[in-house]
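Response to reviewer comment R2.3. The reviewers asked that we include at least one raw input/output pair. We reproduce the pair for BTB/POZ domain-containing protein 6 here without editing.
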Amino acid sequence: MMTMQEFTEEVAQSSFLSHEEVANMYIGYNSNFKACNIRFPSKPRSEPAQDAVFRCRRFESTALDPKSKGRSPQQSTVKFMVNQPISFKGVALFPGSVQFTTQSFAIELRDKDGSLLMSHKANIIKRDSFSHDIVFPRSVTLKSEAAYSIVVSTEDVPERYGEGLKKKVICEDVEFEFLEDIKGEETDKGHIPELLFQPLQDSTQYTALETKV
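Raw output as returned:
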């Protein structure tokens, strides 16, 4: 039987469970599994490695923004590059500060010249979760050592923000380098906590073009 410490150190920080499932595991553990909002599947979750989606986490931790309800909506931008080609799948975003509403997101992925690689709109029903995964309808292959930017627009203000912005993150042997200035208020910068991606095994055959999943 896995201990909760092992669960925290291994499973909770992987991409194997959704954020909602991780939260419900802690709730269930502390309530003898009488207060979970979802049922956990009884069948094995094993899946082919090539289908696994990984998470690049940009922050050391997250926190509630006590002034979120008094802020005006604004765009959030992340600029980054990778050291090897990846299949870019989407982003994880913090929910808005308004309770029990549907939140609309508009997401753009652009290259260093400003050319649009992906534009996606999503409507998310807010749930009791730290973040929401927004998966693109098609993956986008990104080249190594090239700068890209993600711009997220929403009419709501995120209720959480990231603390401890990382300049470099290594995940599944892929190094992400974030190019934005780390100075300034964290509450203005920490609205896109995770990038969703897959490493590409054969890097010689890919370019930064949209590819079907």
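Residues 73 and 157 are 5 Å apart (CA to CA). Confidence is low (pLDDT under 50) at residues 203-213. Further pairs are available on request from the corresponding author.
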